[in-house]
Amino acid sequence: MMTLTGIPVSGGVALAQFFIYREDVPLDIPRFRIQREIVQVEWDRFCSAVDMARIEIEVARSNTLKENNEILDAHLLMLEDPVFSNQVKDRLEKQLLNIECAVSDTTREIVQKLATSPVEYFRERAMDIADVAQRILRLLLEVKRETLADLTKDVIVIARDILPSDMLTMNKERVKGIALDAGSKTSHAAILAKTFGIPAVVGLSRVTQEALNRQKAGKNEKNTELVFVNGETGEVVFDLSDRIATYKTLVQDFRNYRKKTTEFMVNLPAETLDGRRVTLNANIEIPEGVEQALACGAEGIGLYRSEFLFLTSGQPAEEEAQFNAYCKVIKEMDGRPVTIRTIDIGGDKVISNMVDTVEKNPLLGARAIRFSLAFPEIFKTQLRAILRSSIFGDVRIMFPMISCAVELRRALFFLEEAKDECRKRGQTFAKNIAVGCMIEVPAAAEIADILAEDSAFFSIGTNDLIQYSLAVDRNNELVNYLAQPFHPAVLRFIKKTIDAAHSANIKASMCGELAGDASATALLLGMGLDEFSMAASSIPRIKKVIRTVSMKDCRILAEKVRECKSDQEVKDVLERNKALP
Question: Per the residue annotation, which of 101, 296, 327, 511 is the catalytic one?
């Protein structure tokens, strides 16, 4: 066997024939000079290709769930972008080269600038631009476009990366697993794979080359070799040979276990052996995530990452578009609480059309609440949309990356302004909307008692809390091994936040990845955490752990961990006390 290990981004396991998706293979672009009198003819060809591309995207939109149309809408906007088309036309007129060459060279110049950016979001935007340009070039060259929508058999898709539009339109019944060279936990491919419940591993570096080598070596001439993808551990296994039967059994056993666990747990309360009730909520990125959340027994939405509405289009989302998206989620949750986090952009999630410069250190820059406070009209547009949607259910508002009381009070000031604007427009909203803040930087944890004075609840964002506490960029492959959630400093910040919340008679929730880590459940209970919010698929597993422990034992465990001096000591204590799953 040959095993590659990457980043697990969507849980589950899968076994199927591998299918190499090479959308990124360069087209054979002709290059020749043209006469000046032919320029208009070439330009007309470009305009026709753009019109045909627009029709293709519109057709794709009609075959895609409305909740996911934002990505395709972004591609439509790119087709209308005068900057791109003007650059193509300028190159055509000045260089007198064929239109295919003008499109290709212009695209390459733009993509190279974005692809080498230190900001992950810019690198991902390069994919969208390349996607649209490839569509135009195929139409100009009359080359049939390969598509994942036409799959007729079950496959593991292996690729360098998958464009967002292809993720949305692919035959999801046939795609059993995904293995990518590139990607991160925050890439479009990762987010959508999790939404669709497809096991996925990214950041494998050379999985495409390995598949190609095996194909060229004749090991997969008829494309029959089976590949195993483990979205739980990040493993992708080739050359299963005589162990295929074992892996087939493993996949079936896992599916049966997950199905039975979900069915058994979905209607049971998350309650410890000694009667302590715990709230389990789901994190979602797009409205489509509600279906899975309810199927897994979520009691509410603890984190609605609203920035997805902005990231997919690359520009501020209009108030009505936001309002409709929020309403859909709230109505489908049917009275269950929905906590909407205001846009958390900046850092590695930058909207290029909304900022003038690239920050040298974006993770410490104008991100999250800092961005919102710097652009109050964009902020208030979102707040009005949330307020208006609140009449349809139990809506809560959460501000991200609060680091001081002044930021929280300014955010609350703009919320009051948004309320006044709604009143002037005759737009109704719920009277007593709970407003809380995320604790995800050390400063916020240290002054949690102060922040509690103006908060209805806390939600601990462990992903950033770990990153900022330990000075570790979790997306940096050289140092991300240092991002240890059980580091004593991180645990102390968590405990301090929970204690401050309880002293102020408000609840402490957690919406970071640690909330969905079964090895941390008993410890977090012992520390006093009130609510957990996680990927929907993790809820049955966490609920199972909760129902097998007592609060007395959890508190004893938390006291033992408090004496630990390293993350390894914490892990050893959890293992000795059978707190690990």
Answer: 511
The set of residues, in sequence order, having a beta carbon less than 8 Å from that of 412 and lying 6+ positions away, is: 435, 454
What is the residue-wise DSSP string for 32-61? -B--GGGHHHHHHHHHHHHHHHHHHHHHHH
DSSP H helices in 116-183: 120-141, 164-169
Residue with tokens 């212009």: 106
| Reported pTM | 0.71
Instruction: Tell me the pLDDT tens digit for each residue of 56-71.
Output: 888 777 655 555 566 6
Token reading at 58: 């519109």
Residue of 101, 188, 487, 554 marked active site: 188
Q: Which residue, among 319, 320, 339, has the nearest Cα to 329 in the 3D structure?
A: 339
Cβ–Cβ < 8 Å for 61, 69: yes
**Mind listing the domains of the chain with CATH numbers?**
2-23+148-258 (3.50.30.10), 36-141 (1.10.274.10), 276-576 (3.20.20.60)
Cα–Cα distances (Å) from 452 to 383, 394, 508, in that order, read: 21, 21, 10
Question: Per-residue pLDDT tens for 433-483?
Answer: 999 999 999 999 999 999 999 999 999 999 899 989 999 876 565 676 788
Asked about 188 being catalytic, the answer comes back as: yes
Structure tokens at 399: 């501000």
